[in-house]
Fold:
Amino acid sequence: MSEFKTRAYKDGVEICGVEGPEPTGDLVVPQTLPFKNDAGEVSQLPVLRIGERAFRDYQALESIALPDGITEIGERAFRNCRTLKSITLPKGITEIGKGVFEDCSSLKSITLHEGITEIGEEAFWDCSSLKSITLPDGIAKIDYGAFAFCSSLKSITLPDGITEIGYVAFIDCSSLEEIKVSDCNENYRSIDGVLFTKDGQTLVACPGGMKGEYAVPQGVTEIGDGAFVGCSSLKSITLPDGITKIGKGAFEGCSSLESITLPDGITEIGNGAFKGCSSLESITLPRGITEIGRSAFWGCSSLESITLPDGITEIGRWAFPKTTKVIRRRK
Structure:
């Protein structure tokens, strides 16, 4: 049995790590642990928290069972536990914090209880074996990069209560074929597996497993920040005439994208919008564009030349590759 490093936390203890050799196989955290106070008195106290980085980099753990008394798990508590296949979460947990399961590359599935309301930044970052996850109805927020690089994840359903989805929450989920949304959700909707705001005006996220061609539906006015980031199998994207804005990093890393037509209504191309689109050979900028953000076309190594309309007033740093010929259109 493993001996745990502990410290006082509220009316119980927090586990900070393990004494002695690195634990292997199955680890069971007990409901109570002995704790010596400043007076030297030893008493059994309930385990209430797993501390930050408490089990980080333990490479031989296969499963962990946590008792129901635990109400909080610190940032990156299980980061880089690469052999961890399963974990039992306590029912008192309300948040999966920042990077808690980051790089747990053997984790195939996990059950989230109804009390959980938030998936924190990078919570499941690079959990490359995670094939499925069920989000409880109470979840309101999925933060930045929460499921980034979950390359085995094929489908995910967003429940009723989701009100906020962070930047690149599903980046490089290369097997993700659809993002579903509960019909009762008041903030988001799914159209053909692609995530939109409820009013259908902003495209929020395209699943990374989409291949070939994609036509953005009519009525969309904005391509959101990071909406297509990492969609490396898309070759062609058609935008409707009503689009007025392309957000930052909107098409970043779409390395197979060969062509895209920008409608006349677009006035702004965000930072890094087409960064790393290495197959993009040509693009026509509409006359109404006034601003091109930083690194907008950086890394577009196949883009030999680009013609700028005369109304542009601002061009960000490193907007174009050094090898791209930039031509100014004259009035």
